[in-house]
Amino acid sequence: GEAARCGPGPGASPGAAEQAAAAALLYDMKGCYSRLRALVPTLPRHRRVSKVELLQHVIDYIWDLQLALQRGPPRPAAAGDPPEAPCMPAADRILCR
Q1: Is the C-alpha dihedral spanning 81, 84, 90, 94 positive or negative?
Q2: What local confidence, expressed as pLDDT, does residue 7 receive?
């Protein structure tokens, strides 16, 4: 759901609207980070992660999904087939697992 945002009441100081907008944005961002924590399966569940680490996991997970989409459905490997090389070297990816 979306956070309800209300304007300042009558007689509010000029800075109150800005403070209310900043508080609503902070509330919305906390909700976004919570949703990312719930959606990304690669996050460690036994400890809290920083926002930067969370975003690193999100980026890494998106790369994983992109690779899976590029490869298509899994197919049985024939004997003697070399493993498929990734489209991006591991050194260029953000590895946070």
Answers
A1: negative
A2: 46
